[in-house]
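How it folds:
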Amino acid sequence: MPLPEYVGNDVVDLDDPAIVEHHSNRRFVARVCALEEQHALARAADQKAHLWSLFAAKEAAFKLAVKRLGPLAFAHRAFVVSDDFSAVRYAEHRFPLSLATGPGWLHALVSTASAVFCVELLQGETPGATAREALSALVARVSRLSRARLRVERERSHGSWDGLGPPRLVCGKRAAAIDVSLSHDGRFVAAAAIVRASASQNASAHSRKQPVEIDVPSGERP
């Protein structure tokens, strides 16, 4: 049964040596960014942070879009981030966006309702297992569901890049009516979940871990 609200997220390890100079790679920038985004990037004071904010926002929006709209071919340029980083546009659709940073990481959260997230440092475990554990702990904190009964599944999906559909949360033997999203990059894993309005205020402080929102000065916008 389709869920009424959806969430997508993406985390970036900003200290990964492999991404240090990507903002100077014209081919990469042209593949990821729409023309207006390229112009804004060229004027940005911190081009690295600006580029990876765009990238994470697009990845998060795609994760939401495939759940809401069905299977899609992922073209980063088709997902356009607003000048103030408050939304991502895809065709006629507009998805609310929030960005946050912590020590060495950047996180994008795109959702159609109140949502929470957590970012955790990977410590010798496999990223998938760590992310699933983080998600179960997060959901248990913001809902009345038992952490011991929660697990994350991915069903087979023809046409997806890895042959599997988006993660879904299962409680016991039944699918939980909570949309979720997972991400991992470098040293970090991240989990996100839709929460009821009554739980969102208490959940926010726990899941966000006091993030610092990315400040994009108005002079950097087209």
DSSP finds five helices and eleven strands in the chain.
